[in-house]
């Protein structure tokens, strides 16, 4: 049985920062943003690095915040042959930031990455629209493309091949970020923002140190 989170902190937190589970707190902030953000409240900027250490960043969609009872993680999906997929295969570490302008809040995190290629990935792929599933087969993500017409032709071929029921491609699936650090940030008057950083030593540990940071 998973032990409840153990929190070490020097200053009590209240209001929007209250709670002893950073994943529940992140889920609560996301749920609030879903009521206020006009587009893609689950959009996050994902940072990776290539084998030479050159950083890279792009927007992806956060699809699930796994609870602390499952170890706690942030899950997104992509083509494993994409630039980010190749970079994460070579260097399975990542960072991300989610910023909500309507709430004037953000969440930053960084940690270790593992693939999700099991039933959960199958179920999510099956939940996507038919056009999106066909598109996953058609696109050689991040590779040069001669024209949009060529891409559409590949999509048409994939649609005909699978007759309306494309399975999850073997080159497509999830990445799970198990954070070692999570920071919750809220805008403050005169740029005196509130920042609380949660830190743990192990990606499956439920012992967190929470520190208030200077803005």
From TrEMBL:
Cofactor note: Binds 1 FMN per subunit.
Pathway the protein contributes to: Cofactor metabolism; pyridoxal 5'-phosphate salvage; pyridoxal 5'-phosphate from pyridoxine 5'-phosphate: step 1/1; Cofactor metabolism; pyridoxal 5'-phosphate salvage; pyridoxal 5'-phosphate from pyridoxamine 5'-phosphate: step 1/1
The protein, known as: Pyridoxine/pyridoxamine 5'-phosphate oxidase
InterPro entries given in the database record: Pyridox_Oxase, Pyridox_Oxase_CS, Pyridox_Oxase_N, Pyridoxamine_oxidase_dimer_C, Split_barrel_FMN-bd
UniProt EC number: 1.4.3.5
Ranges where the Pyridoxine 5'-phosphate oxidase dimerisation C-terminal domain occurs: 172-215
Needed co-factor(s): FMN
GO molecular function: FMN binding; pyridoxamine phosphate oxidase activity
Primary role: Catalyzes the oxidation of either pyridoxine 5'-phosphate (PNP) or pyridoxamine 5'-phosphate (PMP) into pyridoxal 5'-phosphate (PLP).
Pfam families: PNP_phzG_C (PF10590), PNPOx_N (PF01243)
